[in-house]
Amino acid sequence: MHVFMLKDVITVRDISREDIESVIREALERKKAGPQRLKPELLKPELQGKLLASLFFEESTRTRQSHERAARNLGMDVCGFAGIEGTSVKKGEPFIDTVRMFRNYAASLFVIRHPKEGAPRYAADVLDVPVINAGDGCNSHPTQALLDLMTMTEKLGKIDGIKIALVGDLKNGRTTHSLLQALASFKNISVCLIAPESLCMPSHAVEEFASSASSENIITLAGSLQEVLDKVDVVYVTRIQRERFPEGIEGEIEYQKVTKGYNITRSILEGRKAGIMHPLPRNKHVLEIHFDVDQLPNAWYIQQAENGLYIREVLLRRLLSGSSSGIVGQAKTENGNLRLWQDIPIKDGQKQGEHFLYRLDNGTLIDHIEAGYGHVVLHVLGLQEQMIYARDIRSSRFGRKDVLGFPEKELTENELRLLALVTPRATVNIIRDRRVIRKGKIVLPSIIEGLVVCPNARCITQDDNYERVPRKFAVESQEPLKLRCHYCETPFGREGLKFAS
Ligand code: NCD
């Protein structure tokens, strides 16, 4: 059997196609056995009496109930809360204190839903037991994507080659973000996005799908469902997420504007094969799917919700059997690659940067800064004083450049990293007695901690949450710079840099 190597289920990005397929295969087998409690011979003794902490800091019906039902079917106990009303969260308790407390009650697996993006990842970093992300803000909902793909496999026999329209609130709907990421692992997928302009799929999600491993995957936009209804196998409808709009009258007006025109009715579907999916709940005031669709063979959303139970049973079993048999994949925290310098040979210590050396007996000379970025470097390093500055001068290698010199100063590691973030191609020269004694480019580690602030206002790391989560970013590329928040997964480049104070 394929070995499931994940410690946690936080994002679809961590789950391979093989894992997705093997989870679905097992869930389909479980479904054949029926929804009743598992037969005793199927129960894993090591799961008996284990405790699931089901922590829902946000509303839920299906996701919570199916995880809890699945746990009980496997012989586990369940504790936790459904919504923060009546909990000490209301008294200002930090997220991580609440989580740790359930670990003290011996919970051996956590299912966490939270309005702040990245909260489940933060818990997974702190806990020594598995965490399942049951939805974090608008970011992701990985187990929903698995049950969505299970439903498509069940109905269409395979996922490769699927043509699907994603409809509704593609900006705030976390289920569509995870589904799109999951589909990117398959072949010949055609995705069509249909959303009001203000609720369209984030551009980074579209780009990631378009650059996914399979070049035959295509993603397009359409103005209305009618345009594509005959061309797709699946229409994945989502609720307009009212709770993600601002409170008050302005938010309400904005919401009312975008809820019009996304209603699927029996008459639209007349004679059409496309299966209708929806993560549910649908909204009775809007009826993005009309009641009269429920009886049609196109209404896949009922079975879709049922499939959640089986997917979650498989996940609980695998996560718990994995850790108890010592199969713990995914390093808890990656130790950043600590190599800082990429040395460049020094040809003649006195000739290197000779125009500046006469003014710099000892110190640091930063060369090859992109023209116009010298002042940004100064600002970020807070080193306006004691410097030598040449602006927009000719460079044989880059056309134009800025150069900075700091007499009697060696930059700290953090200062060098900040420099590389702002101007990744810069070369740093260390000067002693008018000779360059070391020259190099700064190599960013694979993870940077602190230094910058996540650009996503809904991220758990933002100061206004008062959660004091240590900031952490994966460096996906240095040139051009591409960072990704370790928690909420938001990618950003140099233009999105905001420095930590
Ligand atoms: C979705 C969610 O919470 O993200 N529901 C679910 O988990 N099945 C979608 C929604 O709330 O609209």
In which order are the strands of the major sheet placed?
10-15-14-11-13-12
Largest sheet: 6 strands, antiparallel
What class would the helix/strand composition place it in?
A: alpha/beta
Helix content: 25-40%
Mind telling me the C-alpha Rg?
27 Å
What distance separates the N and C termini? Answer: 50 Å
Count the DSSP helices. 14
Query: Low-confidence spans: pLDDT under 50, at least 5 residues?
Result: 323-337
- Which strand-content bin applies to the residues? 15-25%
- Choose one word for the global shape: elongated
| Mean model confidence by pLDDT | 90
Number of strands: 19
User: Ions, cofactors, ligands: which are bound?
Assistant: N-carbamoyl-L-aspartate
Provide a quick synopsis of the model.
The chain is an alpha/beta fold. The chain is built from 14 helices and 19 strands.
Please describe what this structure looks like.
With 501 residues, the chain is of the alpha/beta class. Helix content is 29%, strand content 21%. It is built from 14 helices and 19 strands. It has helices at residues 17-33, 62-73, 95-104, 119-126, 142-156, 174-183, 203-210, 225-228, 249-258, 266-269, 301-324, 354-357, 374-381, 413-422; strands at residues 51-56, 77-82, 107-114, 131-136, 163-167, 190-194, 218-221, 234-237, 275-277, 341-343, 363-370, 388-395, 399-407, 427-432, 435-442, 447-449, 472-477, 482-485, 491-492. The strands form four sheets. The protein has a six-stranded antiparallel β-sheet with strand order 10-15-14-11-13-12. A five-stranded parallel β-sheet has the order 7-6-5-8-9. Strand 1 (51-56), helix 2 and strand 2 (77-82) form a beta-alpha-beta unit. Helix 2 (62-73) packs across helix 11 (301-324), helix 3 (95-104) crosses helix 4 (119-126) and helix 5 crosses helix 11 (301-324). The longest helix has 24 residues, at 301-324. The radius of gyration is 27 Å and the shape is elongated. Bound molecules: N-carbamoyl-L-aspartate (NCD). N-carbamoyl-L-aspartate binds at residues 62-63, 135, 141, 144, 174-175, 239, 279-280. Residues 62-63, 135, 141, 144, 174-175, 239, 279-280 line the site of N-carbamoyl-L-aspartate.
